[in-house]
Amino acid sequence: MKKIIELLAKKHKKISTMESCTGGGVANAITNIEGASSVLEFSAVTYSNEYKIKMGVNKDIIEKYSVYSLETAKEMSKCISNYANSNYGIGITGKMNKEDINNPYGENNKIFISIYDRDNNKYYNKEIIASQKTRKENKELVINEIIYILNNILK
Hints:
By secondary structure, this protein is of the alpha/beta class. Helix content is 41%, strand content 22%.
């Protein structure tokens, strides 16, 4: 993550996150690095559909595709980028080793990641399987994937 912070700072770019299943893990990984305040604009943990919608996620997208979908992750990444006026927005949603009685749709253990590049109106998307035994390990899996994607975007 240190390299990502350095690249963002060097390019004078800002980033923001809207996280669900990672519970702020990405924002935490960013803020663990000295100098993060120069690149992190805003971060939101939106576990509930209600707060995803309050942050700008289109309710119709959630109803049509489910909260556990790439379409919802894309909405999250774009909404947080626009809300925070940041160059990049990260949206993460999915199920990690747990069924959700409030949202029965969507595959268990599938995580949807979207990084929105506002300057180029482009999405970088990835679906991964939460294959680790613990929630903590699965969060680390997601964070490492995001680092990989950002590294490729910022090269």
